[in-house]
Amino acid sequence: MTDYIYLDSAASTPVADEVIAEMLPYMKQQYGNPSSLHRFGRETTRAIQLARKRVAEMIGASPREITFTSGGTEADNLALKGAAMHVRSRAPEKNRVITSSIEHDAVIEPCKDLEGMGFAVTYMPVTSEGLVRQSDLKNALSKDVALVSIMYANNEIGTIQPIKELAEIGHQAGALFHSDAVQAAGKVPINVKDLGVDMMSMSSHKINGPKGVGALYIRAGLELTPIIHGGGQESELRSGTENVPGIVGFGKACELASKRIGQYQAYVSGLRDYLIETVSKEIPHSRLNGSRTDRIPNNSHFTFFGVNGEDLIIKLDENGVAASTGSACSVKKQKPSHVLKAMGFSYEEITGSLRLSLGMQNTKEEIDRTVGVLSIVVKELRELSPFKSKYA
Ligand SMILES: Cc1ncc(COP(=O)(O)O)c(C=O)c1O
C-alpha cells in the first residue's frame, strides 16, 4: 500500500512506532492485573500512573483529573449522563441540557437517552460556517440547565468553537460545561484551566495512539454518577479491568503530541492550505466548507457541485486515495450529515461533500497526486450527472 494515499486522519491515524514499542511489554511480559497486589500488579499500576501524568500534561490538568475510558464515545457518555444525573440528584429543578446541533453522535445519542430519562435537551443552531453563537447560548440558558456540552472542533468540517467564552457564559448561569475535544486534543494547544471547562473528552486513536482507549478530564472536586458499574476501578468512576497496553499507548501518544504540537500545526496546516488552494484553482465548481480561519490544522472539507460524494470516495479509492464524506461512524447509516443540514446546506451541497483530513505522514507530493486524481474523477462523474451541462 506504499502508493496509497491516506487522507482520512480525522477517522483514525497510524499508531506511532514509539507507541507500539511502549505497548508491547504490557502484552507480553507485564500482563498483570493492576488490581493485583503482587509485583505484576504493581508494575501495571505504575505504567497507568505514568500514562495518566502524560495525558494530564498534554492538557494542563493534574493526573487525578484524568479518567481513562474505552474511547471518546465512552468519555462523552460519562460526561453527559454522569454529570446530568448527578446534578439532578442534588438539585431536581436542574433538568435541562444544552448542546449544539452539530455534535458527534457520541454526544447526540446520550442526549437522546437523557431525554428518555426526563431531561429536556436544547440543540443550538450554528452559523453557515458551523459556529455556535455566544448570543444563542446566552438566550438558551436559564436556572434549570444542569450542563452545557459544545464540541471543541467538529469532526466533519473542522470548525473550532470559542470554548473559553462559551464555558464562561455557561458558568455564569450556574451550568457545568463539557467539551468533546476528540478532534482537537493533541492537535492544537489546550489548557483546560485556561479554557475553564469542567469536563473534556479525548481519544487516543486520533493522535497516533491505539484504538479503544480515551479519557475524560474531570475538574478536581466535580462529582459524576458512574455509568459503568463493577469493581470500582478508576476511582470508582469507571469499573472494568484497565486496558493497560491501550492506556500505556495513549499516554505515549500524548507525550509525543505534546512534544511535536508546534511542528504538527505548522506542517499539517501548511499542507492543508496548499491542498485547499490547489483544489480551488484546479477544480471548478468546488467550495471549501466551514471556517477558513477557526479550523483545526488537519481538516479540509469541500463540496464538489454536480457530484455524489459517495461515488467520489469509491472512485478515489480505486485510484489510490482514501477519503471520507464526513463522520466515519455515520457513513454506514447512510443518512445525510446532520452537521451540514444544521449549517443550512441544500441537498446538493450535502451530497457533493468530501472530507480530506491530513496527518504528519502525508507529503506535498501526495497532495499534488490527490488533486490530479480528484480533477479527473470529478470531471468523469459530472459527465454522468443529470446536471452535466450546468457544471461542464
Ligand atoms: C468529535 C468526536 N467525538 C467522539 C468520537 C468518538 O471517539 P471514539 O472513536 O474514540 O469512540 C469521534 C470519533 O470520530 C469524534 O470525531
How does this model look, in words?
It is a single chain. The protein has 392 residues and is of the alpha/beta class. It has two domains: 5-12 and 261-384, Aspartate Aminotransferase, domain 1 (Alpha-Beta Complex), CATH 3.90.1150; 17-256, Type I PLP-dependent aspartate aminotransferase-like (Major domain) (Aspartate Aminotransferase, domain 2, 3-Layer(aba) Sandwich). The protein has 13 helices and twelve strands. The chain has a seven-stranded mixed beta sheet, with helices on both faces. Helix 4 (105-116) links the parallel strand 3 and strand 4 (120-124). Helix 8 (244-282) packs across helix 13. The chain is globular. The two termini are 34 Å apart. Pyridoxal-5'-phosphate binds at residues 71-73, 76, 104, 106, 151, 155, 180, 182-183, 203, 214, 329.
| Main beta-sheet annotation | 7 strands, mixed
* Coarse structural class: alpha/beta
Q: State mean pLDDT (0 to 100 scale).
A: 96
* Shape field: globular
What is the C-level CATH assignment of the largest domain?
Alpha Beta
